[in-house]
Design goal:
It is built from 7 helices and 4 strands. The protein is of the alpha+beta class and 140 residues long. Bound molecules: adenosine-3',5'-cyclic-monophosphate.
């Protein structure tokens, strides 16, 4: 059993596809074990994306992530990290496969609707960044 963090980003919330994203995860046999809506501060967004702080797109990415509310969630299931990434599609929607969330809804590599942890270490950091122990529902 594996856990991963996913986020419906500000563009996904504005496009009213929160339910569609949840439906795709649940439809693939994954379970949502934590969920909320949140508005990040600049400092919180910078902390979340700290691994990218030297990248040229960092400040634009932070601007985008604080541009409106987001919906972070913890997803649980066998192979959840890869399953979520497969359902999302490639980071750049231009490269995303048919039927993926980003192919269907994303406008650009920055406004790409969803985030998903890319490995087990990042999943551990990211799930705890957004949710306390009391907000994670074990074995429900
Ligand atoms: P995400 O999976 O949330 O992780 C980092 C994010 O940076 C990525 O999705 C993209 O939305 C964003 N990003 C913006 N520009 C780029 C870029 N040129 N290359 C990669 N990621 C980018």
């Amino acid at each position: 059993m594996e856990r991963t963090l996913s986020i419906v980003k500000p563009d996904g919330v504005k496009k009213d596809v929160i339910g569609e994203v949840l439906k795709r995860f649940e439809g693939a046999g994954l379970r949502i074990v934590a969920l909320k809506m949140a508005q990040l501060t600049r400092e919180e967004a910078e902390g979340f994306y700290a691994v990218h702080k030297e990248r040229p797109f960092f400040s634009s990415l932070v601007d985008f992530m604080v541009s409106g509310p987001i919906v972070p969630m913890i997803i649980e299931g066998e192979g959840a990290i890869k399953k979520v990434r497969d359902l999302m599609g490639a980071t750049n929607p231009a490269d995303a496969e048919e039927g993926t969330i980003r192919k269907d809804f994303a406008d650009s590599i920055e406004a790409n609707v969803v985030h998903g942890s890319d490995a087990s270490e990042t999943a551990a950091f990211e799930t705890s960044y957004f949710f306390s122990a009391f907000e994670k529902f074990e074995g429900r």
